Amino acid sequence: MLKLQKDPLDLQEYFKSINASIGACLFFAGIVRNAPEDQQVQGIEYHAYDKLCFHKEKHFEQNFKSLFPDKSYHIVHRLGYVPVKETSLIVTLFSPHRKKSFSSLEFIVEWIKSDLPVWKKIIHCDGSSHWKANF
Amino acid sequence: MNNIHVLLFAGIREGIGLDKLILSYPQGITLGQLIQDMETTYPHLLRLFRSCQFIVNCQEIQVDYILQDNDEVAILPPLGGG
Questions:
Q1: Which residue segments constitute the domains of chain A, with CATH numbers given?
Q2: Which of A43, A50, A130, B37 sits at a 20 to 30 Å CA gap from B68?
C-alpha cells in the first residue's frame, strides 16, 4: 500500500496496523538532513506524479508478493516542504517472522529510490535551491 | 489534429514555467517527433531533456509510438524520492 501526504508523518500510526499474525515489524524512516559538506540545507520540497506513483506501486506489489509471499508493507511518502530533521518517508514491513524481513524492507526502499516518480528540490538557508536526483 | 497533453515535472516544469502543455499535431506524429519538437522549442532544457524518461498514459513506450488524440505524455526528469 502506498500513501502520499502533505501532513507530517507519525511512526506511531503504523503500529495500529499490526494484527495477530504479525511477528516482525520493521521500519525505515527517511529523514531530511543537513549536508554540512555542501551549502546549509533548510529543507526539501517533494513533488510527485501521483497517478503514476499509484500505477507503478500496483505492479511493484505484485512483484513483491511473488518474491516475499508472507510479507506486506505500507509506504507513506510526504510531499511539499519538509524541514531538516523531519521525516519524508516511512516504510513499514510486516511479516510473521524476521527471516528475509530486512532484505525485503531494503528491496522496497531501493524501489522507491529508483522507480517512484517523486522529485526533490533542496532548499538552502540562503534561499537558493536545486533539484537533486537519486544515484 | 490531435491534442497531446504533456505533463511537466521538477526542473522541466520550472524551466518552462508551466505544469502542463496541450500541443496540437497532425495525425501520425510519433513520440520521438514530440521529443524533438520540445528540444527545439526549449533549447535551454536540451541537456535535461536528454536525461528524461518519457511516459505515455502511464506506460513506458518506444519513441516510434504514434501518438493518439488526448494521449498524456509525462516528461520525467531523474527521480529523487525518499
A1: 2-128 (3.90.1170.40)
A2: A50
Count how many domains chain B has.
Answer: 1
In 3D space, the residue among A123, A69, A116, A117 whose CA is nearest the CA of residue A97 turns out to be A69
pTM of the model: 0.94
Interface test with B, best of A49, A75, A111, A132 (most B CBs within 10 A): A49
**Record: contact A134-B78, CB cut-off 8 A:** yes
| A90 closest CA partner among A1, A10, A36 | A10
Domain of B36: which CATH number? 3.10.20.30
Over residues A60-115, the pLDDT tens digits come to 999 999 999 999 999 999 999 999 999 999 999 999 999 999 999 999 999 999 99
Q: How far is A9 from chain B (nearest CA, A)?
A: 13
CA distance A91 to A30: 9
In a domain, B76, yes or no: no
Task: Establish whether this prediction's ipTM goes over 0.90.
Answer: yes
Cβ <8 Å between A132 and B82 = no
